[in-house]
Amino acid sequence: MPNTEGRSLNVYNGSDANSLSINGELSKLAFNISFGHRIHAGIHFRSSTLYSILLGEQVALSVLQDRAKSYNEPFSITITKFDGTTATISNQ
User: What is the pLDDT along the chain (92 residues), one digit of tens a residue?
Assistant: First the structure.
């Protein structure tokens, strides 16, 4: 949340503050968008919605890996996928 002036962010001090991660928040966002409000990406079946999330994950990882090749500085990042396995994006 921004502060009252809107120039900086307030520190989050909720009970789950130490367990929040970017990966966890992105996973939550993907599932909330796909399963929320009874609008399913797969339209008719819950399994279709789940598989659309997994397909989106594969596409995103592929795009990120392709994009990584355009960076001059060496880097590597490991991401935990929805199924619990990891994927590494690197330009090395």
Answer: 788 898 999 988 888 888 888 888 888 888 887 777 565 555 667 777 788 888 989 999 999 999 999 999 998 999 899 888 999 999 98
Looking at the domain assignment, is residue 3 inside a domain? no
Question: What global pTM score does this model have?
Answer: 0.67
Domain count, the chain: 1
Whole domain around residue 28: which residue ranges? 17-90
Measured CA distances, 12 to 1, 16, 69 (Å): 8, 9, 35
Q: How far is the C-alpha of 79 from the C-alpha of 88, rounded, in Å?
A: 6
Residue 4 counted as domain residue: no
In a domain, 71, yes or no: yes
Has residue 25 been placed in a domain? yes
User: What secondary structure letter does DSSP report for 2?
Assistant: B
Quote helix, strand, coil % in the chain, to nearest 5.
45, 15, 40
